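Technical annex B. To support the medicinal chemistry partners, we prepared a structural model of the target in complex with 2-OXO-4-methylpentanoic acid, based solely on the information shown next.
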Amino acid sequence: MDVKIVKTQSPKAKPDMATVPFGTYFSDHMFLMDYSIDKGWYDPRIVPYAPLEVEPCSTIMQYASEVFEGLKAYRTPEGKVQLFRPDENAKRMNNSAERMALPKIDVDEMVGYMKKFVEVEKDWVPSDPGTSLYLRPFIYADDPCLSLHPYHKAVFCIIACPVGNYFPDGMKPAPILIEKDDVRAVRGGTGFAKCGGNYAGAMHAGERAEKNGFSQVLWIDGVERKYVEEAGGMNVMFKINGEIVTPELNGSVLPGITRKSSLEIVKDWGMKATERLITVEELIKDAESGALEEAWMVGTAAVVCPIGELAYEDKRCVINGGKIGEVTNKLYEDLTAIQWGRVPDRYGWNVTVD
Ligand code: COI
């Protein structure tokens, strides 16, 4: 793999992992590669982390033409560095890119670039318990032109930040507001793609929820306005009458990699796990009767996050007495033990970097 490497002349101090907020402190380098319609992808390089040069008229600035991924590099107890399911991120990035008319990158090559980048940034993979190096690969269109036409130029970039817990207060059951007004996605839209615009459009409802004391919103479908879809930045899972259920992937839900891995794990434990439509009505009824035994969110950044309370209109339903459920906790322990290499990787999910 021919990647030009230009090392920084002024390496930064590593942050205090006990206090560094999620996504705020970046490593010494970044990966860059350019695309033009004539040359395809070219000039892969690792260079010192620095501001990007973007023209004010660029497609990314004007039309938000961007897709991204989030994955983590973990340090094992033996000191090795491994990536969790990077091939899944690469495949999803291409699906997102296709939806946004951005150029794709060969999956093996993309994984190769991620590995090369982490190899260079190896010292940035922290070893403190519960920490990792979060990678943020992204592709954006960079045509210096205001007219709407197929893109001629794009950039692929990877940046990295050492992270601890996504939530500053640790794994604490979160109060979640079922969002009635704003809509995140509709089938045929961009809901299944990991594009920046989906998150930008979610800020308004997220801000309102936070102001009212909620951790984030739970979206409902944009067509019938009755099915639960996903939380602010994560997928959701429920334990109802002993069975795991999660909203099915119907085109407007993000196909989460932690979601997929969690389903495989709970099925392996022998639990029944179903992907299906779940109505808000059913969820509230089950929460009130106690049939909804546990609820949690899953995503790369936070891994597993318990839901302690669901609010909808004037109802506020406490789940599992507001405590972390048994399955939620076991899933967190099992999944993170694989990711950090504390137990053998029975699924072959980890990819060693060095
Ligand atoms: C992730 O979990 O990696 C995400 O992309 C969520 C994010 C918006 C922080």
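Notes passed to the chemistry partners:
The chain has two domains: 4-164, 174-339.
Residues 174-339 form a domain with the D-amino Acid Aminotransferase; Chain A, domain 2 fold (CATH 3.20.10.10).
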